Amino acid sequence: MDSDEYVLLVEDDADISEAVEAILREENFNIKCVSNGKEALDFLQSTEKNPSLILLDIMMPIMNGYEFRELQLQDAKISNIPTIILSAAGRQNDIDKLNFQECLKKPLDLETLIEVVKKNSK
């Protein structure tokens, strides 16, 4: 991954966030972590360089993954960023409406996570 390329992780569980960040850094990915959809939108609207990929949790406080994804898809600046859904639960029909690249079930299989991030990063 180029030095200015990065993955945006939107995850409210600190343990999961720290683990995913550590794993991806070991694989030489730059990663930015935020804890809910509102923080993610605020960050994306304030940054000049979009991430190459978004890893998006569904169930979060303040703004959940469904709400974030709906607003993301309405914003031309960020709508085309590939998005991977991270989900422990959620109704599959609702998740299917999110227009994502892939959906990884929690608990995450780390080998699969690395493979999916490598495959979907620009």
Describe this structure in words.
The chain has 122 residues and is an alpha/beta fold. The termini are close together. The protein contains five helices and five strands; from the N terminus they run E-H-E-H-E-H-E-H-E-H. The chain has a single domain, classed as Response regulator (Rossmann fold, 3-Layer(aba) Sandwich), CATH 3.40.50.2300. The model has no long low-confidence stretch (mean pLDDT 89).
Give the averaged pLDDT, no decimals: 89
Shape: globular
Query: What top-tier CATH class fits best?
Result: Alpha Beta
Record the strand order, biggest sheet. Answer: 2-1-3-4-5
Helix content: 40-55%
Taking Cα atoms only, what radius of gyration do you get, to the nearest Å? 13 Å
Domain count: the total is 1
Any guess at the CATH architecture? 3-Layer(aba) Sandwich
CATH superfamily caption: Response regulator
Reported by name, the CATH topology is Rossmann fold
Q: How do the helices and strands line up, and which of them pair or pack?
A:
Blueprint: E1 7-10, H1 14-26, E2 31-34, H2 37-46, E3 53-57, H3 65-74, E4 83-87, H4 92-96, E5 102-105, H5 110-120
Parallel strand pairs: 1-2, 1-3, 3-4, 4-5
